[in-house]
Amino acid sequence: MISSPDSHEIVGVDFSGAKDAGKKIWIAQGVIKGDILMIIECFQAKDLPGAGRHRERSLIALREFIRKQKDSIFGLDFPFGIPINLVKEKSWEKFVVSFDGTYTSPGELPMVCKLAAGGKELKRFTDVEAKTPFSPYNLRLYRQTYFGIRDVLGPLIKNNRVCALPMQKPLPDRAWVLEICPASTLRRENLSLSYKGRSETKRTARVKILDGIKKTGVLNIKKSALRSKILEDRGGDALDSVIAAFATFRALKNGFAFDKSSPYGLEGWVYT
What we know:
globular, about 40% helix, alpha/beta, 8-stranded mixed beta sheet, 8 strands
């Protein structure tokens, strides 16, 4: 891991709510060089100061990392909200800040949401637009949603340490955070390949994805050793963090455009 450079920084975070989140969360750091995002580092959350393999320490360390990067824009791979029909609070900020009091355990999130939704797994407006794979409280995703909001996003919003776009106006004295979804970004780029695994076929798919993103002309990787590090991560999490950085940089280039007719104010918005 390296310290933040003087130029504006883009950071992609492939998030995890697993017990060994420090090992599964990957962070890709990039700097803007003209019209290109140059990826300069990619590392696991366990390598952050004060972190480790376990979830609690790693999420605290990630939160501190975000808080200190006041000139950075972060793309975070977890839902920033739930479907509007299930939100009782009057604002997104109140929903996020009171989240840990509303849902006192990870399992309570899908249980309460399904009960309120008549047993259905509802999607947000932005999930439909971005074609995300799952509802925020799906059994494959709810831990990411729960720990992402409770341990990372909620405390940062409560203490006015970040601006979450587009629900909040961007301010110059703190980091900006965006919700992204690597699967949706790959779908948009027609790069939806099966790339997570140990086989040579999966590695070849990771190469095709990384090369496909590079061919857009807006992303590059500084060193061949870093490229190899990203491709050799068999779980695909390192690559996902690069995709997250790519989506975040594209959002910046597009002026953080979003569908103003959507109920994003309560649900959140996925940038692809």
